[in-house]
Design brief:
Number of strands: 0
Radius of gyration: 17 Å
Number of helices: 8
Number of domains: 1
Shape: globular
Helix content: over 70%
Strand content: under 5%
Length: about 210
């Protein structure tokens, strides 16, 4: 425990300005997503673009691909959340996935995991010996799935975010990005809160 505490303090003291800004933007973005506020996307874009750089620097290439994907999906989600019908109602509403959509997301996750894991094994042998393929692939594939579902306002997106955060906490810690690891601890709590809030909003929508 003493060694972990010492590493934690040393990691915090080594936090760069880029990492600090990225972490704060990420936390703010998740708070906005819990509130179903479209500002989740512009704040999220700050987080993702900075983390592309940090991920490559830390040889977390799966995470780098996730953040590139986040950036692209943020633009799509921004457009999708902003769409309104002729009555000025939002076209996309919070909703659970049906059986077909559940199957699609599990297939999507499995394909992403296998592809990322295989690629990371190749990279590890070549020029990234410190890569952790299975953990990086798990965090990445669950995040890919969560972001896709978030853009469509599916309640299940929060379950995938919970998986991503649980895996990412130790993954970033062992890489020396302690402040980022703390971010994922905060995001884990916010993901649970987001799940509860979206379920509540969906229930209220059915009752109204």
């Amino acid at each position: 425990m003493q060694e972990i505490y010492t590493q934690f303090i040393q990691g915090l003291s080594a936090t760069t300005t880029i990492e600090f800004v990225a972490v704060i933007a990420g936390i703010i973005s998740v708070i906005y997503s819990r509130m179903e506020n479209i500002l989740v996307y512009p704040t999220g874009l700050i987080n993702t673009t900075l983390f592309i750089y940090l991920s490559i620097k830390g040889q977390l290439f799966g995470e780098a691909s996730v953040n590139l994907y986040y950036t692209i999906m943020s633009l799509y989600g921004w457009w999708n959340w902003a769409r309104r019908d002729r009555a000025d109602h939002h076209v996309v509403q919070i909703a659970p996935s049906n059986k077909k959509e559940l199957l699609q997301q599990f297939v999507f996750f499995d394909v992403c995991f296998v592809v990322i894991w295989a690629l990371l094994l190749l990279i590890k042998k070549g020029f990234a010996p410190d890569a952790i393929p299975w953990a990086d692939a798990l965090a990445s594939a669950s995040a890919f799935t969560g972001m896709w579902l978030m853009a469509r306002k599916k309640i299940e997106s929060w379950y995938w975010w919970i998986i991503t955060n649980i895996v990412s906490i130790p993954l970033w810690f062992v890489k020396g990005y302690v402040f980022t690891s703390v971010q994922f601890m905060v995001l884990l709590v916010l993901a649970v809160a987001g799940l509860i809030e979206w379920k509540r909003r969906h229930r209220l929508g059915l009752e109204s």
